[in-house]
Amino acid sequence: MNAIKVHILYEYGSDMRPHASSFIRLLRPLTHPLLRDRVLVSYGTNYYEEDVEVVVIDRLWRPDVKPESAEELLDTIRRNDVKMVYSIDDNLLDLPTEREDWPKEHHLQVFRLFLREADKVLVTTEALRDRLSSFNSNITVIHNALDERLLLGGRLPPVQPLTGKIGTVIGYMGTRTHDEDLKIVLPALRKLWERYPEQVRFEVLGVLADKKTASMFAGMPVSFIGPPQPEAEYPLFMLWFTSRVRWDIAISPLRDSPVTRCKSHIKYLDYAAIGAAGIYSASPAFTGSVKHMETGWLATHEHEAWLEALERLLKDEQLRERLAYNASYDLYGNHILARRAGMWLQAFDGLSSL
Q1: Phi, psi of 304 (to 5 degrees)
Q2: Residue 180, burial from CB neighbour count under 10 angstroms (0-12, 13-18, 19+)
């Protein structure tokens, strides 16, 4: 079988570098060694009429995107008789009800245009597929997976962490748009610390765009961590994260909304990769992947539910180790590219006949 030639237009910012989501969902999977003889990949910030069969457009493509530039891109693709695949991992349609700053109306116009004009749409969850189905009937779900080549921590954490360990470390990782999610669990974290002041400390990676959120940690033993700037881009970040971060317990609160119901389980995979026992909101993002009390703890949104989970895992080291091990076993057994790379190849099946 001849290899299919694919050109990826990754989403990028002012630095012209691919966003993390582009690495996770397109660049790392489609350049995986298992697909070396089946997919010939090129990628960049634009399509200059390269000799390819498929152009994949990621999310909103470019920071200055407008409907006019999107239409021009689509015209070029069609003129060269190339199929267009649109890759999206977020429910942008409902996001304006939660954020005032982004996306703007012209972003939504581009989003709808790409959805309607795509020969195929790739999404990360069934909920997102259902939300977007009115725009395109040819939508394929490919669940997120991690590239095992970037995972250095192994299945169990090392004996010695990066810094001297004092007490049980509870960690949280999120982008700067997740302050409202973190606020769900902050009262439980404070209560836990008040009950066990000598036994717990906290680490926060990313997030905290709102200074008021950071102030809610006042007086608590918390460290705000991150990689050196040269290691901030996703591939190097994952090497840093999985080799240097060691949390006993990792938390992923997620508020309930039309946007979060379409989110993926990527945080579960990240936490499994560092050997942490995870506590997750009992939301659609996690209920399909996390098995309660087997590979993680699913908690409702009440503060009491989070406090119960935190306190139980703080006291029960055997349970922590069991959840962490089972999650890592699940990750390496079911959610790495070595197991799932073929799903991306299957996504291109049948495009030539459309």
Answers
A1: -65, -35
A2: middle
Distance of CA 77 to the CA centre of its chain: 29
pLDDT in tens, 39-79: 999 999 999 999 999 999 999 999 999 999 999 999 999 99
CATH label, 4-145+337-353, candidates 3.40.50.2000, 1.10.10.10, 1.10.260.40, 3.20.20.70: 3.40.50.2000
Handedness of CA 280, 286, 290, 292 (dihedral sign): positive
Which pLDDT tens digit goes with each residue over 273-292?
999 999 999 999 999 999 99
Q: Which two tokens stand for residue 58?
A: 């990621």
Can you name the CATH fold of 149-334? Rossmann fold (3.40.50)
Does the pTM surpass 0.85? The reply is yes
**SS3 state at 112:** helix
